Amino acid sequence: MKKHCLREDGLEVEAAALGHAFRQAYRTQSHSFPNYGLSQGLTSRQWWLDVVLHTFQLAGVRDAQAVAPIAERLYEDFCKPCSWQLLEGAKATLRQCRERGVRLAVVSNFDRRLEDILRALGLREHFDFVLTSEAAGWPKPDPRIFREALRLARVDPAGAAHIGDSYHCDYKGAQAVGMHSFLVVGPEPLDPAVKGSVPQECLLPSLSHLLPALDRLEGSPLEL
To answer: How far apart are CA 43 and CA 112, in angstroms?
Structure first.
């Protein structure tokens, strides 16, 4: 079996080892410094740079000086549209929602780069506003970020629906404040515990299933 490696600035690391190290570093950083460590004096940029440095350390690269420029480049690269892949049917679904008079917004556990990323991908024009956890000060599933989104949208929870791919942060978080909630599921088998607690009509195999799901809801228009 051929091993895939990352080669950058004279460093060579197995891709599998780097992927495993990143997941571990991300979990540790999120636990120690939730929501980008904003309440602990960090910036989101420094938070991400520290994640990359820790990732390479866990993968066996101890030279922080060599990793620092790589971390900076990765941070900048993730502002570029080529670093992101749109879900199938995303643009068409957003356009159809707007044509139906559904107002749209983004509520995301992400940092200040999101506005530029959405603009570069040609998606920003579909949304009335973008609310990140960095701007709000609270990450999903904290009810305060959902309530802030509802305040910005000037809509009651019963008149809004949230669509996301995290059962805990998206589906349960929005449901807890009284919003309609839909869970986007991928091709991988769904956790039986999750599948058993989400009504079939709230499971979306893809974004193209959203409009039929909204049609089944009583009352309109909705905010997303």
So the answer is: 10
Would the pTM count as exceeding 0.90?
no
Residue 17 Cα to chain centre, angstroms: 24
Which residue is associated with the tokens 């004279």? 10
Helix, strand or coil for residue 67?
helix
CATH top class, domain 5-78:
mainly alpha
Query: Considering the domain 86-219 in this protein, what is its CATH number?
Result: 3.40.50.1000
Q: What is the three-class DSSP state of 212?
A: helix
b/e 111-138 (16+ beta carbons within 10 angstroms → b): bebbbebbebeebeebbeebbbbbbbeb
Nearest Cα to 222, choosing from 90, 152, 94, 214?
Answer: 214
Q: Tell me the residue type at 207.
A: L
Same fold, 5-78 and 86-219: no
8 Å CB contact between 182 and 211 = no
Domain boundaries, the chain: 5-78, 86-219
pLDDT in tens, the chain (224 residues): 344 455 555 678 888 999 999 999 999 999 999 999 999 999 999 999 999 999 999 999 989 999 999 999 999 999 998 999 998 889 999 999 999 999 999 999 999 999 999 999 999 999 999 999 999 999 999 999 999 999 999 999 999 999 999 999 999 999 999 999 999 997 788 888 888 899 999 999 999 999 999 888 755 555 66
Three-state secondary structure call for residue 101: coil
Q: How far apart are CA 142 and CA 124, in angstroms?
A: 24
